[in-house]
Design brief:
Number of strands: 15
CATH architecture of the largest domain: Orthogonal Bundle
GO molecular function, one term: [protein-PII] uridylyltransferase activity
Helix content: 40-55%
Number of helices: 27
Structural class: alpha+beta
CATH topology of the largest domain: Hypothetical protein af1432
Shape: globular
Radius of gyration: 30 Å
Largest sheet: 8 strands, antiparallel
Keywords: Hydrolase, Magnesium, Multifunctional enzyme, Nucleotidyltransferase, Transferase
EC number: 2.7.7.59
CATH class of the largest domain: Mainly Alpha
Strand order of the largest sheet: 8-9-11-10-14-15-13-12
Distance between the termini: 65 Å
Strand content: 5-15%
Protein name: [protein-PII] uridylyltransferase
InterPro entries: HD/PDEase_dom, HD_domain, NT_sf, UTase/UR
Number of domains: 4
Amino acid sequence: MKLLSDLSVPPGCALVATGSLARREMALHSDLDLLLLHPEGVEPDVGKLWYPLWDSGWRVDHAVRTPAECAGMMSADSTAALALLEMRHLAGDAELTARTRELVLREWRVEIHRNFDALVGAAIARWRRSGSVVTMTHPDLKNGRGGLRDLDLLRALALAQLCDVPALSAERQLLLDVRGLLHTHARRRRDVLDPEFATDIAADLGMADRHELSGEVAGAARRIDAAVTAALAASRAALGSRVRRVRRPLDVDVVAAGSEITLSRRPNFSDPALVLRVAAASARTGLPVTTHTWLRLRELPDMPAVIPAAAAEDFFELLAHPEVVNELDRHGLWTRLVPEWEHVRGRMPRERTHVHTIDQHSLETVALCAAVGVSVARPDLLFLAALFHDIGKGYGRPHEQVGAEFVARMAARLGLNLPDRSRVQTLVAEHTTIARLAARHDPTSDDTRDLLLDAVHYDRDTLDLLEVLTEADARATGPGVWNARLESGLRTLVDRARRALVPATPLRPHVHAPEQLTLRRDGDVVTIAARGHDPRGILALLVAKAWKLSAVRIVGEHAEYDARPTVEKLDDLDTGAFIQAHKSGVHTAVPVPPPAPTWLSWHGQVLEVRTGVRVGALAALLGVLPEFEWLSLTTPGATMIVHVSLPGVVDRRKVDRDVTRVLGNG
């Protein structure tokens, strides 16, 4: 660039380029990123240097620093650090530039050992701000996950000698070409690829339409993202740790090794449910699964036609965590569970209001449903409907119908009974009904109310679930879709429909406990039947043995607890040892559960409590309840739902206050 070659660099100083100028990747409206280096103790006169640039009309981002100040930037600002690593000499003292580059690189290789987590944290914060290039309908080509900034991150890790530079030149060139054309068509600096520009850019690149362009960009970003994930894992392994990694069991054949999840030393690779146990453990603990573990899980056989009950629980538990589902999909494991996902992965929706691809919109909807899961009676059905609500798009038929067919098939695989299959099928088939009625009809009309009741088959649970799904779907679509008008229409219409229905009354459970303590096995679940025992003693033993509780039924002194081991294998279960461990009275302590969102309601004399599943929650609840007639507990969708009948005169305010204190944030 002649403008730069004509600049008057002060004596003893050096002018260097950083950023896209240094990489020779500038677009039409990119900034000129320039740095003037000067020796220690010298104050250069920069007035004549910058004025020609300011007068030229270019946007200039400039700085004046010594070599030591540049080295100090390695720890002060990760974004600036990545830019300095790629400095290129333009004019002046070339030796000063070389000395600065060497000092910066040496400091970078030292600093990354101290601040690797901060570097990763900055990248994660950037991804959260800008989203994913793979999944957004308006992708940020520069800052999004899988974008150009991630290529800079890869090079920085390679310069730190933590990983190799992957072969991504074609992917880089595609993103640069698209970004360059975006600047041309937008006539301004622009990094977000909007649909209105994508059509012209696709034509310039010889592609059929914007959808083909989006597919090519998403494919390139997906490969960049995979390379970044692998590079970060390799870097973390290269940096190592002086602390011995403690292995602790999380589930059968699943262990936490330090801050990662891996497999036991001799896992059972004939068990297809192992993949769900690993994924659910990651969702439950927030720990990442090692890449090697994901690769080994590919060796597992396919799931049976009907997924076992314990595996189905794990499936529902992981649904609320999009990052885990995406990891499963990235390693080719998700479509083995949900084969219909192949059709919507990376697919752009036709509606311009969407900000995500169909697959990621579905996961975002599930996550929003999970955030309010304790407000509904069947969060498992809600999560499944949210996952499948748009999965029928792109088949040339109404997507509600196609999705309803798909979800009915999946519900059968998960072992749901016929009424529950009908509910989840209705949710998918009618997931646009409330929004349509609120927009086109009078929400206060009895006729409109009856149309909604017909759609949900006059079922209170389906109505409650559809209300939550409608809001989550709108919020996940894009800005402005969930608005005051839709919210008002939805609340009015659903409230009127709810008043027309008679709420269901929780039923007393049936319990069979003929002896003091017995164990019986049904598939992957063990039922502990007890008579005349303090429930907290049984719960303490289950905690000590790391058993996962899924259901409880207590009537008077008779009780049944459905649970499954997470450390020992069912084939190794010793009933006599279990009974003896309980009789010994050694196990009495139950951990205090951490607070979590908790929802309470009364149905006559029956209290209903909904809260997140966690160790110690039921024991804490039993500790504050007055004497009760019967109690039932279920755990659909990782939500603990308890119904307890409290006879006689009960101080409901005190009960609510006590339950909220031990389970919620009160």
